[in-house]
Specification:
Blueprint (H helix, E strand, L loop, with lengths): L3 E6 L2 H9 L4 E4 L12 H10 L4 E4 L11 H17 L3 E4 L10 H11 L3 E4 L9 H9 L6 E4 L10 H10 L5 E4 L8 H8 L3 E4 L6
Parallel strand pairs: 1-2, 1-8, 2-3, 3-4, 4-5, 5-6, 6-7, 7-8
Helix pairs in contact: 2-3, 3-4, 5-6
């Protein structure tokens, strides 16, 4: 089984370097120092016109909260529509309610609008009360293609059993993208334990 290494970047230079050094896919963000925000439209267009590998764009208008007002949801819709117009591979977002559980009304709305792009729910899942229950919720939505998660922990190394359980709960067509401190140095060891297909990190490729 081929593994997919997705590198998160917030500049064109890093995107080009990641592709050159073997990344299978890019998650394009703005402000990785804030765990990733929506990148500028200029950066999206430049990266899309330069790279040949698939690009998924972070849709996240603010830091640190994943609780969004109607105004912020409308901004996210505009950004998703921009990505659709360009023809990117996918978008990445997540919405929580006041109780730190998924706001499925907002998620369902955004995921429907995003089609036919791939829709990935990001690490907001790791802030919910149960990553397993949250996974079941989103996997029931046929417009959602996957989730980016460190199994409710900060680092994947502390959540190997949970990540394996998450993989067992969903069909192989649903991407469980393991993340959280996965680097080119520990990748082989973690992959041998998790046995997933999809992995994500800033340093998952050496460049």
């Amino acid at each position: 089984m081929q593994t997919i290494k997705e590198v998160c970047v917030d500049s064109l230079a890093d995107a080009v370097a990641a592709e050159k050094n073997g990344a299978n896919r890019i998650e394009l963000c703005g402000r990785l120092d804030l765990d990733g925000l929506t990148p500028s439209r200029k950066l999206i267009k430049e990266t899309f016109s330069t790279l040949k590998i698939p690009i998924r764009v972070m849709i996240r208008p603010k830091h640190p909260s994943f609780i969004y007002s109607e105004y912020e949801i409308n901004i996210m819709i505009e950004d998703i529509n921009f990505c659709k117009k360009i023809g990117l591979d996918g978008v990445v977002f997540g919405c929580l309610d006041e109780n730190s559980n998924f706001d499925m009304t907002q998620i369902n709305k955004l995921s429907k609008i995003a089609k036919p792009l791939n829709v990935i729910i990001h690490k907001a899942i790791d802030s919910t009360s149960s990553v397993i229950n949250s996974l079941i919720l989103i996997s029931d939505n046929k417009n959602i293609n996957g989730v980016l998660t460190s199994g409710g922990h900060r680092f994947a190394v502390n959540a190997v059993d949970i990540l394996k359980k998450m993989l067992d709960l969903v069909p192989s067509s649903f991407e469980v993208i393991s993340a959280g401190g996965i680097t080119y140095e520990n990748f082989d060891r973690l992959h041998s334990q998790i046995e997933g297909k999809y992995y994500h990190g800033k340093k998952i490729i050496k460049f």
